[in-house]
Structures are given as structure tokens and as C-alpha cells.
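Lecture 7 notes: from sequence to structure.
We start with the chain below.
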Amino acid sequence: MGNARKLADLLAGGAFNSVGIDDNGDATTITIDANEDITAANGIYLSGDLTSLTVDKGGIDRSGNTTRIISGRSGGNYADFSVNIAGVGGVNRQLYMDYQGNTTLDNGNLVIGTSGKGISFAATGDASGANQSELLDDYEEGTWTATLPRGGTVSSQTTYFVKVGAMVYAGANIVISGQANEGNLFRIGGLPYAVKTGSHYHASSAITYSASTDLNHVYPPTPYSGGGSELYFHRNDGSATALAGSQVQSIGQIIFALVYITDS
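Predicted C-alpha cells for the same chain:
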């Protein structure tokens, strides 16, 4: 207490020059009140090879190139940590971390600000094979617009897609008419992401409803092997024949879903 009072008396005296404490002016820089609480008018700057700011059992220190924020309590175990920011309704907790490292965002989102970055699961490394990646770098969901690239009209559609990493689910309930009566491949376009070239063998799909045509002889859709954002249909008759426009003239309403790989 005596040393605190002496420091308070020194600061109250105006300009001073002394080893370790120097404000180079007449303004009050450091104030110590009756409770011995210290206020620094312009912040606190710590310098040196090994510096620290300790508050009760926690603090901030730096060693080499590492700055640490330390949260502790009496006994030194089982402390937690939070970041609180002033906002609507007062100072609100925004981030919380318990003593086991479990982290909670109380408000807002975790935003990945750089394309190609994400959440890494590299600590597991469980799968076999080559060209592995354990970085979850994308998620998106929404609707997509089905088209008929060879001509025709999509008069009604309800669609939905979900993208997780490189995997895309795309579903649709569409009503089509006026499809081109030709020998060229019948295709439905507008998939939400381009199909990865050469990955069509890894797709999975289903036709769950057809209003006016018996499609028992038709396989579920396959993403177009040349890449792009289209799908097509194979015949289910033991041949390798894909459906042409002339073979789908009676198709009206159709409900289908497709899971495929993209590199977009």
C-alpha cells in the first residue's frame, strides 16, 4: 500500500523523468484509485524477449514468436476462456472455450474467408488409397434450374441441391414438353455444379416417379461423361444404348435425384 501511494503521489505531481516511469508531459498517464485499481490512459505496451501481463491466475505472455492467452484459476486447473464484445443489449459473450478445448460460438458464424480453405481433418488419416484430402472446403444448398439443352420446355419445376465438399446431391420434380424429336442424346441440363470429367462412373441416382410413361426400361440418370452440367439416361435392356430425343416424346412429369462428383 505504501509503494502504491508513493507512485500515486509521483504521478499526481505532473511532469517527471525517472527510470521505468516517464510520461514526458503533464497529462495524467497512470491513475491508482483508493481501491488500488490502476488505469492506464493510453493502454499498456509490453516489450522485451519474454514479457507477460498477468491478471489473477490468467494473463498474456510471449516467448519467441508465440503469444499466449492464458486462462487459469485458483489451483491452476479447469479454467475456461471467453471473448466478450459490446453490442446490442450490453457486453455479450461471442466465443467460449472450456478447459478441454471445446469451443462454442454464441453468436454469428464461423466464416472461411479464403477460397480453398476450410476445416481440416488431417489428424485422422484413416483411409487407404491415393490422392487423399481431408479438407472440408465447401458447403452450399439451394435450388437449381433444370433445362432441356436440345430444345423443349420445362413448364414446372421444384428443385433442391446440397453440396458438401466435392459431393453434390441434386433432386428435381419437373414437367417437360416439346422435347426435340431427334436421334441425338436426350439430356437435362442446369445441374448446380459442373460434373467432374471422367467421374460419371461414381454417380448414384434414382427415378422415383413418372406421370405418363413407363420407365421400367430406363436406368436412373447418369451425369454426362464429357463434363458440363447435364445428365442423360440409358436403356435398361441389356444394351449400351442411351435414350435419344425421339424415345422420350411421351415423358411429361418426372421426379429424380442424382448424387455426383464435382471439382468446382
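Points to note: The CA atoms of residues 43 and 259 lie 56 Å apart. DSSP finds one helix and 18 strands in the chain.
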